[in-house]
Amino acid sequence: MQRSTDRLLALAMLVIGIACFAKLYLALGGKPPATLRAEVFGAAGLLSVLAGLVFLAGLLPAPARHDPAAPLFGRDAGIAPAGHPRLRRIALTLPLLALLIIVADQFAPWRTEEPAKEVASAPAEPAPRPAEPTPEPEASAKPATPEATTKPATPQASAKPATHAPAQEEAAKPAPPAEPVAAPVQPASPAEQAPPQPTQPQQTALAPASPPQTVAPPPPAPAAQPTAPEGHRDAIVWLSVSADGHEIMSASTDRMIKLWDIDGKRLIRDLGEHKDMARSALFMPDGKTALTAGDDGEIVLRQLSDGAVLHVFSSGANGGVRQLKISPDGKRAVSGHDSGAVVVWDLEKGSVLHVLPGHDWSVSSVAISPDGARALTGSIDGELKLWDIVAGKQLRSWHGHERGAYGALFLADGHHAVTGSGDYTIKLWDLDGFREVRRFDGHSGTVYALALSSDGKRLGSVSLDGTARIWNMDTGAEIAEFDPGTGPIYSVAFAADGTLLTGGIDRTIRDWPAAGGDGKVLFAGAPE
Fold this sequence. Notes:
528 residues, 31% strand, single chain, 4 helices, alpha+beta, Methylamine Dehydrogenase, Chain H, four-stranded antiparallel sheet, 2 domains
């Protein structure tokens, strides 16, 4: 009976000790130990556990010693050794000491101190990130889905952008695109911070009554944006202009491809719908068909007259199509995928020419040289690669940007290219010497898309900072800046008359004057 009681007592000591440690673990919650008197729980728990262990040790039989007088059989032979009484006595004092520590802590003077309080403060102005929407290596592991980032911001970094904001892709990315920034909290006015204290009524004819405190009226709400039922229901991530300059094709995160009449300012038709976010929509050189692509991994050849599907190219295991470009002669196309693969397509035969698994991260930009023989691709980690797409081999690879590379373009000479990036820069590259020739600085967010004027003298850019800009290609000087105040802009193209067309998170297509000034809504988005 005595030994059973001893075992129960030892077990109780162990349970008390473990409970003290559990309380210590739960109480800390990642906070500094000093604020929760963690030392008290830790000491008490340690003593209790030690007491239980020592007490158990005291119950162990004493080492067997040969005693010639000890009986080998009979009643006395069945009695177990008494153990270590001295250890048991020591163990009994330890839990008492732990109890004294806890009691002392409950009534100690420091108990009267006020607990530390967490004070919410307005977020500090975010410092400009040297990189995009995140790679993009938007994440520590290679992203399995398009930009996010990505998907840009990731477009990033490692993950697919929300259906209405490709900019979020960048954010791991190695996630297209938008860098939403929480609006800083505005400090309250003095009247809002501390209401006037009540005062005792005074009978005096000399002291005029103090004027009542007033609160500044709230700022006027932004003007409502125009809407149209036929417009896109989500962000516009791609714009292209037909060769004759009369039509615009747009792709959106709402999965729709739309064809617009610039002169008549009307929607011609919904050209088709992808199963996931639509990424690219390009006019074919024949002027009768279009090639579109999206995150569903399909590249679709469509008829412009009625949107009929003529052929579907499936990227299969290569994943969603982030970027797509067509050679000037219309014979080949190059697609960049969220898996990092670059695929060269034979559009005449409807087959694959080459699969080039060169990038470690999602491909965020593709450009084809004027002669149709080479391609430049960029990924959400800032790496650039030059390919021979006829032979299907890599010519050069270099780290061109600190973050994802977007909007790649070849210049007319075929020896220079331009890239935008999540590091907020636009760079002009000499592809013969693989060196940076010029840098266009000014954006404060990821440069997501680029467009070159028909004469090659002006560069258009749009950014997640919500602005569009026109640059002088010869000097790198900024010609004009446009800020509609509606959030991230994802797509850009030059119209035939030299004006700049943009589309973004506000679902509208805007037209901006070439020399700067106020723009106008060309095609409004659908009501929310």
